[in-house]
């Protein structure tokens, strides 16, 4: 290889790597906008970027009930970094799986009650 050829290879490799990192970062952003506990932190960071630099969580950040999301008992993220995004996403998936299992059980119970009451299930 000649010396003039190497910089071009390195440059194209850098472009490919940057594109790869951008795609991964875009997916992390999409994930943080999809998980409610992360969405709170994302909005907080957008409104006050300096606020997210420390570990403190301002419980009174949302002043009105219109702005406060229902997190169903889940703790909002205190920081936003890739590790937190992944762990909060896993936490939310597990929460949804548990919630789904409970809904299935409740549905089964209701169907059983309907059957015992003589309600035709084909109309439900």
From TrEMBL:
TM annotation in the entry: none
Stored SMART domains: HLH (SM00353)
GO MF: protein dimerization activity
Domain annotation BHLH: ranges: 8-96
Pfam families in the record: HLH
Segments forming a coiled coil: none
Region Disordered: start-end pairs: 43-75
The protein, known as: BHLH domain-containing protein
Organism placement in taxonomy: Eukaryota, Fungi, Dikarya, Ascomycota, Saccharomycotina
């Amino acid at each position: 290889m000649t010396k003039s050829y190497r910089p071009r290879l390195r440059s194209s490799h850098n472009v490919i790597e940057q594109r790869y990192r951008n795609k991964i970062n875009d997916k992390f952003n999409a994930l943080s906008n999809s998980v409610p506990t992360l969405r709170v932190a994302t909005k907080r960071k957008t409104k006050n970027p300096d606020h997210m630099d420390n570990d403190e969580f301002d419980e009174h950040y949302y002043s009105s009930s219109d702005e406060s999301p229902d997190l169903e008992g889940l703790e909002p993220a205190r920081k936003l970094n890739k590790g937190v995004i992944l762990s909060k996403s896993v936490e939310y998936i597990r929460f949804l799986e548990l919630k789904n299992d409970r809904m299935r059980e409740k549905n089964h119970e209701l169907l059983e009650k309907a059957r015992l009451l003589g309600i035709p299930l084909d109309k439900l």
